[in-house]
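Quick one, T. Sequence first:
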Amino acid sequence: MPYFSHDDIAQIGTPPGPSPVGALRLSGDNAFAILGAVSDISNAPGPRTRCVVESVMRVPLAGDVLSCPARVLVMPAPATYTREPMAEIHLPGSPPLLQAALTALVDAGARAAAPGEFTFRAFRNGRIGLGQAEAVERLIRSTTDAERRQALSRLGDREGAAIRRWRDDLLDIAARVEAVLDFSDEELEPGIEADLAGLAEQLTASARARGDHTPERAGRRVALAGLTNAGKSSLFNALLGEDAVLVSEDASTTRDSIRRPVVCDSIEVELSDNPGFDPDTSGQGGDAATRGGKVTGGDDIVLWVVDASRHLDKRDVEFASSLTGGVLLVLNKSDLPPRTDAHQAAALLDGAEATLLGDIAVSASTGDGIVALRTEIARLAGALSGDGGWNRRELLELAAARECCRRAAADLSLGNRLELAAEELRHGVLCFSRMVGEGYAEEALGRIFSRFCIGK
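Structure tokens:
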């Protein structure tokens, strides 16, 4: 992962293709030494002064060294985008010339920057939060005035301040619960459940007021996914209200993803039934089953269907580790004797890149819980379809934090489930931390920034 190195980095900062002027960016502790090796910046007044210098850059081109006029913006740390010493070099916008100039900087000691690596350094060095970094990319890729306004509104730190305030409130509540666990003579303070309920309402209101709006897609994508024979196809038919797909006890009956629009409580979503996952199955059905673990990456919400009438095994562990994005745990076959509960299944997501949005028990065969599942799908899809400043990743974490508050309040109301409540509160704090970019594994952050443009 190049993002976590402290190399000096350089990259072309203008779009591909010819233009009157092109730009290269350079950042790192040795940026000015590298710049001095390939250009004449003797007129720069000093390493601590921000200035523009008319210079000449020595560029290897067509077997020769070309002395090319350049305008160089010298930016000492920490008052720069990355909070490192930076330089921006303006040259004629010929693509071969810019590429040759980048090669010169690399030969002098820099490394060609990965996509979004300048913005990642701004995030890593505390210049901006993760939501603001993602807004930079949204601004660059925007094609309409509405998209640009949304991205610009998110570049401010109002949302980050709100997240940190909610995290502090939840940390305070968690500390009060932990005190009761640590000291047996302590009693739970009155009003904690009300505090949690109030925080959950704040999160709900914020999600509705400032949810991300994606005008290019009318309905949110909701995917049914899980092991073979978990009952996904039966659940798909139950949610649609018709026999749209074949239901069979044979494994891997579903070979390809099937998508249908469905309206849940007046909100339209695109629901998909996907091949069941089973890494031990061989043959053509096995190919489909293996694909079942890979087809949900582009969906907004994943309904992770678990057969609650059987014990979890290594296949569940492997499948859970592959999940990403927002996940609603659906415990199917609730009409049969239970052998797996929500806490056991949810524990499999620890360390995964998925965000648990809640859990619900249903029976596709009897219809129990189907109405409640429709309502929950509508609530989650609605939260992802607002018209404000949160992006999809933030909304998923916000929804997960809200569910943690609700589940913790429910555990506290029972009086004898303080350990479970404390665990929910710890996970809620982690959700808020991840909203601002803390608590993610390096690989997860690398995936986020790898979607950015080169040179940004």
